[in-house]
Amino acid sequence: MAAPPLPPETAAPPRDPAPPGPAPAPPRRVPRRAPWRARLNPYLLLVPALVPIAVGLGYPLVRQFLLSFQEYGLAQQFGRPAEWVGLRNYTELLSDPYVWGVIGRSVAFCLVNAGLTMAVGVGLAVLMSKVGRAARITLQVGMLLAWGTPVLATLTVWQWLFDSQYGVVNWVLAGPLGLAEFRGHSWIIEPASFYLVATVIVVWMSVPFVVFTTYAALLQVPAECVEAAQLDGAGAWQRFRHLSVPLIKPVLLIAALLQVIWDLRVFTQIHVLQKAGAPTRETHLLGTYVYSLSREFSMAGAMATVMLVLTLCLTGFYIRRMLREEEL
């Protein structure tokens, strides 16, 4: 016999259809790694550029580093074997108070000149972006002439400007300004005025690079952002400080890094002024001091290595900042 049907109240209620779930994701394809030859191709393309750099820079650096641990002078130039002396050259240099004075003067000269160059260069770049076309072209031509003039020609002009007998600077100070003590004043005899003249020359020759670099970066600041900040009531200084500077900060860091390197190893300007009659011992910087040790190759190599380490220490901050900017 068939079982009796269940009463209506005890019958199981019909189930609601299950809601449609998300479609299953397609199987993820694992990318295949390129063969090692394909991964090596980009590095092979760098070889033509790396080989000249390694030969032109790497060999002199290695040679300089090895010479700094040897006794190498004029006798070794004529065939006498070089004697390995270890850290003796470094010990003699770093135990000499005069060397520390040269290092201190070089660092102070570098920081002052780099700071002045950046301040004047950024100011002229902002001015160039605000003036009319005729004034802008005049500034650009003037700075190109200052930048493109050979160093020795520029130094000759500045020596005549600061000449004790016929210089325009002494004539202006003693004549129209009435400062009689500057009549016949020699600017390169005293170390303080010597570094003042050197600072003027170095900044004059370095400013055009900062101006053109900063001006090119300022042209990339979006005009819409500047107009929005102006509509919000931001003044010219506020727009420059809070809008333009953050956008061009990578360019400013690179320019400042190059200025620190160039001003720390400045040589030609100091050497020419010394030859014009300045006391060399009181006006030596790292570049000219290394040159004065040219007959003692091992000592010169040790001093040049110290100079290289000092340059890396001073530029380490900027390098870390640039690497951090790239990671963001």
TrEMBL record:
Membrane topology per the record? Multi-pass membrane protein
| Gene Ontology biological process | transmembrane transport
Q: Does the keyword Ligase apply?
A: no
What the entry lists under InterPro entries is as follows:
MetI-like, MetI-like_sf, UgpAE/MalFG_permease
Organism, scientific name: Geodermatophilus nigrescens
Q: Which keywords does this Swiss-Prot/TrEMBL entry list?
A: Cell membrane, Membrane, Transmembrane, Transmembrane helix, Transport
The ABC transmembrane type-1 domain is annotated at 103-318
- Which taxonomic lineage does the organism of this UniProt entry have? Bacteria, Bacillati, Actinomycetota, Actinomycetes, Geodermatophilales
The UniProt annotation puts the region (Disordered) at: 1-31
| Subcellular locations according to the entry | Cell membrane
Query: Can you say what this protein is called?
Result: Carbohydrate ABC transporter membrane protein 1, CUT1 family
Start-end of Pro residues biased regions: 1-28
User: Which GO cellular component does the record give, naming just one?
Assistant: plasma membrane
Pfam families linked to this entry: BPD_transp_1 (PF00528)
Q: Where are the transmembrane segments?
A: 43-62, 98-127, 139-161, 194-219, 240-262, 297-319
Primary localization class, coarse:
membrane
Q: Does the keyword Oxidoreductase apply?
A: no
Family listed: Belongs to the binding-protein-dependent transport system permease family.
Matching entries from SUPFAM superfamilies are given as: MetI-like (SSF161098)
